Amino acid sequence: MATDTQLVIFDTTLRDGEQSPGCTMHHAEKLRFAHQLASLGVDIIEAGFAIASHGDFNSVHTIAREVSGPRIASLARCKREDIEAAARAVEPAAKNRIHVFLASSDLHLEAKLKITRAQALDNVATAVALARTFADDVEFSTEDGTRSDLNFLVEMVNVAVQAGATTINIPDTVGYTTPAEYKQLFETVRLRVPGSEKIIFSTHCHDDLGMAVANSLAGVEGGARQIECTINGIGERAGNAALEEIAAAIATRHDRYPYTTNLVMTELYPTSHMLGEIISFTCPPNKAVVGKNAFAHESGIHQHGVLSNPLTYEIMTPASVGFSGQNIVLGKHSGRKALEFRLKELGHTLSTEELNAVYHRFTELADRKKNIYDQDIVALLHAPTTEPLVTNVP
Ligand code: KIV
Ligand code: ZN
Question: Does pTM surpass 0.90?
Answer without folding.
Answer: yes
